[in-house]
Specification:
The chain has one domain: Gcn5-related N-acetyltransferase (GNAT) (Aminopeptidase, 3-Layer(aba) Sandwich), CATH 3.40.630.30. It has seven helices and nine strands, in the order ββαβαβββαβααβαβα. Strands 1, 2, 3, 4, 5, 6, 7, 8 and 9 form a nine-stranded mixed sheet that branches. A hairpin with a 2-residue loop joins β4 and β5. The radius of gyration is 17 Å and the shape is globular. The termini are far apart. The structure holds coenzyme A (COA).
Length: about 200
C-alpha cells in the first residue's frame, strides 16, 4: 500500500502526518505521554503495532520529531460484532491527538491524508462511537457538543450517521454509528451493509 506523508505547520511546531506506518517503523518511534484517552501510552503503542500487523489493518500517525502525537487506526471489526460478517468492511477504531496538540487541525488533516489512500475506496468504513470513550472532562464539551464535534470531524471525510438497532449503540442516544461507503464499493456490498444495520426485527 502506498505510503504517503504531509507536513502540517501548527502554532506548536511542525507535524508530519504519515502512513500507513509499518510495525517496524512504529517500533522505532516514541509515543506521547498524553496519548492516554483509551489506554496508557505503552499499551496504546502496542495497540498501534497490533493494528499495523494485521493483514487489513492500517495506522496513520501524526509525528513531532521522533514522537507519535496522534494516530488513526483501521482494522477489521471484532468477530463479536455483527459488522464482522460483512466481507468488505473496515472499522476506524480510534483517532486520538495528544492534548497539547489538539485544536490545531491535526485530526482533521490526518483523516484527510488517510482517506486519500485509494485502497479505502474499496471498503465500507464504519466507526462506532460510544460516549463513554469520549474525553468529556478534558474537552469541556457536554455529550451533545462532543457528538456534534465528532459528527463534523468524521463528516469532513465523508462519514454519515446511520440508524441501527445495534444494542450497544442504542444504549445511549448520543452513541452513534457512522459509515463511509468508498467510491468503488459494489452495490451488493452496500446492500449487505444495510442488511446488517437492522438485525433485531420481529421474527418470532
Ligand atoms: C477528537 C480529537 C481526535 C480531535 O483532535 P484535534 O486534532 O483536536 O481536532 P482538530 O483540531 O482537527 O479539529 C477538528 C474540528 O473539531 C473541532 N474541535 C476539536 N476539539 C474541539 C473542542 N474541544 N471543542 C470544540 N471544537 C473542537 C475543531 O474546532 C475543528 O472544527 P472545524 O473543522 O470547524 O475547524 C481529540 O479531541 C481527541 O484525541 N479526543 C480524545 C479521543 C477521542 O474522543 N477520539 C474520537 C473518538 S474515536
Amino acid at each position: 500500500m502506498a505510503f504517503s506523508s504531509k507536513e502540517l505547520v501548527t502554532p506548536r511546531g511542525r507535524v508530519i502526518l504519515e502512513g500507513p506506518a509499518s510495525p517496524e517503523y512504529l517500533k522505532s518511534l516514541a509515543i506521547s505521554e498524553h496519548l492516554r484517552n483509551f489506554r496508557n501510552p505503552a499499551r496504546q503503542k502496542e495497540a498501534l503495532l497490533n493494528a499495523a500487523s494485521q493483514p487489513e489493518g492500517m495506522v496513520y500517525i501524526a509525528r513531532s520529531n521522533g514522537e507519535i502525537i496522534g494516530y488513526v487506526i483501521f482494522h477489521r471489526p471484532s468477530k463479536h460484532t455483527r459488522w464482522s460478517r460483512h466481507p468488505r468492511i473496515l472499522e476506524l477504531g480510534a483517532v486520538e491527538v495528544s492534548r497539547p496538540w489538539q485544536r490545531m487541525g491535526v485530526a482533521k488533516e490526518l483523516l484527510r491524508l488517510a482517506f486519500s489512500n485509494e485502497a479505502l475506496e474499496e471498503y465500507v468504513v464504519i466507526t462506532t462511537e460510544f460516549y463513554w470513550h469520549w474525553d468529556l472532562r478534558g474537552s469541556g464539551l457536554d455529550v451533545w457538543e462532543y457528538q456534534r464535534m465528532l459528527k463534523k470531524l468524521f463528516g469532513s471525510v465523508g462519514f454519515k450517521k446511520r440508524h441501527t438497532d445495534d444494542p450497544e449503540i442504542l444504549e445511549h442516544p448520543a452513541n452513534m454509528l457512522m459509515v463511509r461507503f468508498g467510491s468503488k464499493v459494489d452495490k451488493a456490498y452496500v446492500k449487505a451493509f444495510e442488511d446488517l444495520t437492522f438485525q433485531n426485527s420481529l421474527v418470532e
